[in-house]
From TrEMBL:
Signal peptide residues on this chain, from the entry's feature table: none
Keywords linked to the UniProt accession: Membrane, Transmembrane, Transmembrane helix
Location in or out of the cell: Membrane
GO CC field: membrane
UniProt membrane topology term: Single-pass membrane protein
PANTHER family: PROTEIN LEMA
Family per record: Belongs to the LemA family.
Lineage of the species this protein comes from: Bacteria, Pseudomonadati, Pseudomonadota, Alphaproteobacteria, Hyphomicrobiales
Protein name: LemA protein
Main subcellular location of this protein, as a coarse class: membrane
Length: 186
């Protein structure tokens, strides 16, 4: 009789651990999803700003067509990207293209003095800071989630419940390209 109670007690404890682990992993997964949605909002604002910036630059630097086309292609690619890995790669390209576009202002003093360009560049700079903060929050959420699925007792149940490792929003190999100051050539 006492053996039955012990077995029942062990089963109840295991069920409790499974439910607790599942609920914790669901909460962590939701946090990752919400963090990615925050990044997505910031990126959409940046995507909406890019055409205005390009149009402003066109009036002053019309012979810089290659740079302008690169920015538009990178924006279109970024808008159609899906999931953190694709979005990260596409946004890295867009950041590089925008860096080259902003660098054009150094070659065109009239453009640099244009109030509309200054406002758009300021908005872009503000958005870049917000994106960086959102990316840090997302990566923190992913780190907590990935740690959560590897810690005991959740590690015993994570695979059964379909929880798998998530990818960070990383600049990857092109980090040095994005962080490097754009070269201005006359």
């Amino acid at each position: 009789m006492s053996t039955g109670w012990i077995v029942l007690g062990v089963v109840v404890v295991l069920v409790f651990l499974a439910f607790s682990a599942y609920n914790r992993l669901v909460a962590l997964s939701q946090r990752v999803g919400q963090a990615f949605a925050d990044i997505d909002v910031q990126l959409k604002q940046r995507h909406d700003l890019v055409p205005n910036l390009v149009e402003t630059v066109k009036g002053y630097a019309s012979h810089e067509r290659g740079t302008l086309d690169d920015v538009i292609k990178a924006r279109n690619s970024a808008m159609s990207a899906q999931g953190p890995a694709q979005v990260s790669a596409a946004e890295t390209q867009l950041s590089g293209a925008l860096g080259r576009l902003i660098a054009l202002s150094e070659a065109y003093p009239d453009l640099k003095a244009n109030a509309n360009f200054q406002q758009l560049a300021s908005e872009l700079s503000d958005l870049e800071n917000k994106i960086a903060a959102s990316r840090r929050f997302f990566n923190n959420a992913v780190q907590e989630y990935n740690t959560g699925i590897q810690q005991m007792p959740a590690a015993l149940f994570a695979g059964m419940f379909g929880f798998t490792k998530k990818d960070f929003f990383d600049l990857g190999a092109s980090r040095t390209e994005v962080e490097a100051a754009p070269q201005v050539k006359f």
